[in-house]
Write a structure and sequence with these properties.
Length: 155
């Protein structure tokens, strides 16, 4: 089960995209120095396909990418709901911010345009730091993955 805590349109999470970012609670990763430790808790509303329809109706076409921010507690649902967007809103790209190092087996790459991997580790910094352990992967049409983390480092 996924639960969403809040959502907003953001500009920096995915380069060159206007992202409707939905923040999920129930995060199992518990990274030391986490920017949002309240997302570890069981808070917010259940997130399902009706939630997606609601948000698409609310924001209309004012974004280019739908961002699943978290959801490592239930990657199967992340995958299923990304597929729902692919089918019902094919003009919108999909992104997933995971805190795991590896993409889980439940994830079908064809449902995503971008996947961020890796936990937050204080000494390595965030995606904006060249020392980061995290990676932003672009999923190409042939389902190969391309590390585009360096796009965060360009001025
Ligand atoms: S994955 Fe993100 S939300 Fe979860 S503990 Fe790590 S930094 Fe916090």
């Amino acid at each position: 089960m996924l639960k969403y805590f809040n959502y907003d349109v953001v500009f920096q999470e995915i380069p060159n995209e206007v992202t409707l970012a939905v923040n999920f609670s129930l995060c199992p990763n518990k990274c030391k120095g986490c920017h949002s430790p309240w997302l570890w808790q069981d808070k917010g509303e259940i997130f399902d396909s009706q939630s997606i329809d609601y948000l698409f109706d609310l924001y209309k076409d004012n974004f280019t990418c739908f961002g699943f921010m978290g959801g490592d507690n239930d990657p199967q649902s992340v995958n299923m709901l990304a597929k729902y967007i692919r089918i019902n809103y094919p003009h919108i790209k999909t992104a997933w911010y995971s805190g795991k190092n590896e993409i889980p087996k439940e994830i079908d790459l064809k449902n995503f345009n971008y996947i961020k991997t890796g936990p937050y580790i204080q000494e390595y910094g965030s995606l904006k730091d060249k020392t980061t352990n995290q990676k932003l992967l672009k999923i190409n049409t042939d389902l190969s993955t391309e590390d585009i983390t360096n796009m965060f480092w360009k001025k």
